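Appendix B, example 12.
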Amino acid sequence: MEENKDFLRQDNNYRSLKAFRKAECIYDVTFYFAHTFLSTGDRTIDQMVQAARSGKQNIVEGSEAAATNKESELNLTNVAKASLEELLEDYLDYLKAHDYEEWPKDSEKGLAARRLGRNDDYEKWSSYFREKPDEVVANLLVSLIRQCTYLLSRQIAKLEEDFVLHGGIRERMRNARTAARGNEWNKTLYSRLDAAKDREELDKIAKALHNQIRRTAFGIAKRKGWA
């Protein structure tokens, strides 16, 4: 059963995910942005903060669910991506409402924003953003969110592939049980054959086992409607 011992995942360290680190930064800066540049009482403040928090927290919850429920991990990662896409629209709306330019991704500013977003030292970002006007902060967040959702898209594709190939915890446990039964069956066959005292008895045991296997196979085929 050695090959099935890892049907429970152990690598659910969400803090090692680049997507999480970006989402954590997005939440921190969004909280600052919403409470600094939006008017007090504006419902968009809560909407943006909650969308940013949902993006971060669902990555955490998806990673925590990974050990026992692959389907939940996949669903929660999709929710994280959708929440950040909603937040992206809020930033784009802010730029339009204030007649600010959205930096083209291949422009000098856009390329600088993308380079900044690839820097994993997010602890420095908070002080950096506090020195910038709202147009700059919004554009930098647009770039960072797009990088994060791209990473989540890749993660979702990998999770979908893994789910199709290996299934969820129920499938993995069933495979483990099947493998265990197969190993026991092989041991039983070997034990019965190995107990033969001579070649004639060995052939008789082999023939009896062959007939037993044929009857078992016929029963399975009949149960599945193949007979």
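Residues 2-168 form one domain. Confidence is low (pLDDT under 50) at residues 1-10.
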